[in-house]
Design goal:
three-stranded antiparallel β-sheet; tt1808, chain A; globular; 212 residues; alpha+beta
Length: 212
């Protein structure tokens, strides 16, 4: 048996739990993960993942959790079967997100928060899309502490602004652009393409050949 196979057996890539309990929870996980990846794409040293098992302590495969979304600054992008912290410069994920579903139990979420507090998470965000309820925690004096004014909060690590409205949560990048769903992004790109085609047609009508 090779060393890599032994590692995989000791630190499995899957915990046997589903990524999401329902379509809404899954949509929010994908929405957050894809938009964060898009924003941090130019930075090779920011790793973003969804539903990835995080093992903080070597030799303790029982200590693990799979945040719905995690962000790690100071680690390169790339495929990982799991996030084994001792192989990642001992850098813990700085930011984690959890999306609540009816299947989540309070005891389970309390254990996750305790885990994140113990193993070095700097910011933890918990959103319930059914109730439109957002909770945020940031590390203050070594302990994850609840954010009092979360309705219009900007993440210190991410620069992302959380705007909690009456019906839903809207997120904004540091450049002011709103987080978009895949369909919204496609519609935006199509609108830009059509504008470019109209401009090119107007230039040609004036006898000017547009630049490629």
């Amino acid at each position: 048996m090779t060393l890599s196979v032994e590692r995989n057996l000791l630190y499995p890539d899957c915990d046997g739990q589903p990524m999401a309990d329902n379509a809404r929870q899954f949509q929010w996980i994908v929405f957050l993960k894809e938009n964060l990846e898009r924003w941090f794409a130019p930075n090779a040293q920011v790793f973003v993942a969804g539903d990835l098992l995080w093992y903080p302590v070597e030799g303790r495969p029982d200590l693990r959790v799979a945040p719905d979304v995690l962000v790690v600054f100071g680690r390169p992008k790339g495929h990982r079967g799991s996030y084994q912290q001792w192989r990642e410069g001992n850098i813990a994920p700085q930011v984690v997100f959890e999306i609540l579903s009816p299947g989540n139990r309070l005891q389970e979420m309390a254990k996750k928060q305790e885990f994140y507090n113990t193993y070095g998470v700097e910011e933890y965000y918990l959103y319930d899309p059914d109730e439109n309820d957002l909770c945020g925690f940031i590390r203050v004096n070594g302990t994850l502490t609840a954010v009092d004014q979360i309705a219009d909060w900007t993440s210190p690590c991410l620069g992302i602004r959380f705007a909690l409205g009456e019906d839903t949560l809207t997120l904004y990048r540091p450049d002011g652009e709103k987080f978009l769903t895949t369909l919204e992004l496609e519609a935006q790109m199509e609108a830009q393409r059509q504008r470019a085609e109209r401009l090119a047609a107007q230039l040609r009508a004036l006898g000017v050949e547009p630049e490629e």
